[in-house]
Amino acid sequence: MVNPLLPSEFWGIAIGVYLFLGGLAGGAYVAGAVADLLSTRQPDRKESYFKTARWSMVIAVAAISIGGLLLLTHLGEPLNVLKFWLFTNSQSWMTIGIWVIILFTLLATVQALWLGFGREDGFPVSLGPVDALARVTRPREDIRRAITAVGIVIGVLLAVYTALLISAAGQVVPLWNETWLPLLFLTSSLSIGIAAVFGVTVLTQGFLGTGVQEFSIADDVIILAELGTLAMLMFTLKNGGPTAVETFQYIMNDGWLLFWGGVVGVGMVVPLALSGVLLGIEGRCDLHKNTFMCRWATTICALKFGLVVVGGLMLRVMIIL
């Protein structure tokens, strides 16, 4: 008798990377969109937030493009499967997910076009036809920001749809719990999105007057929510049926390094500890404009954000493997 294949036997690292890139794209869009919308309420940071929003859309487009290619490669015959998904079973998260990816890619691309090209404060490169297209298609700022707000909803859907999709197999794979996995994906995606976007911001614009401090604190709150959600997922496994208990024991024993060292340590605990260090030095940087302290704040903040992103990748790899 042949045992049925377990998901890990045909869903390898590539799908884990796709889940990571999809979450990163959605989270980056949301982080940049919030910065874009805040720019109207904080005029002193308008230019900085604009640059942050611009790069967030580039990150979102790059992440969803690479992730989409990984997904299509995994499918084997992507065009046939794509057609099947698009026109049948509209209540399936597989079908909904394809439409979410298409709509998200369109929104992120046009926002990157409108923010980066055909304007004096855009990218420091000139691409004639692209600049002309941006000028012709760009709406009024209030309309563009309304479209940005709609994109936040699509970005959140992109972040959680894969969890909703695979949690349908939660009875077979207890780790893919239908209650906790979507919330875990949402908090993780928002966290790595903020980390990626404001990691670029702190490296290119510095620490002061860029909103990095505020968004770093917001990321800490989200990390705590993510940590709590992960704890509830582990508690559910520990107190579940035989397969759930076996999964919990495997994670705690054979998979302890990836879980405790990568997901929890690198992705959550160390970034929170670095935030504590930041609180101790950012005041001296802000009040006294201490150049040495500001450089340390920039370095620590960039390291924190980098570790959050790495931890987000390890989380998806653990969930798949």
Structure, described:
The chain is mainly α. Helix content is 79%, strand content 0%. The chain starts with 12 loop residues before the first helix and ends with a helix. Residues 1-5 have low confidence and may be disordered.
The whole-angstrom Rg is 21 Å
Distance N to C terminus: 24 Å
User: What integer is the average pLDDT?
Assistant: 87
- What's the overall geometry? globular
How many runs of DSSP E, i.e. beta strands?
0
List the helices and strands in order. HHHHHHHHHHH
| Secondary structure tally, helices | 11
Quick recap of the structure?
The protein is an all-alpha fold. Helix content is about 80%, strand content about 0%. α1 packs across α11 (about 290-320).
Features:
321 residues; mainly alpha; 11 helices; globular; disordered N terminus
Topology:
Elements: H1 13-38, H2 46-75, H3 78-87, H4 93-116, H5 128-137, H6 141-166, H7 180-205, H8 212-238, H9 242-252, H10 256-288, H11 291-320
Helix pairs in contact: 1-2, 1-6, 1-7, 1-11, 2-4, 2-7, 3-4, 4-6, 6-7, 7-8, 7-11, 8-9, 8-10, 10-11
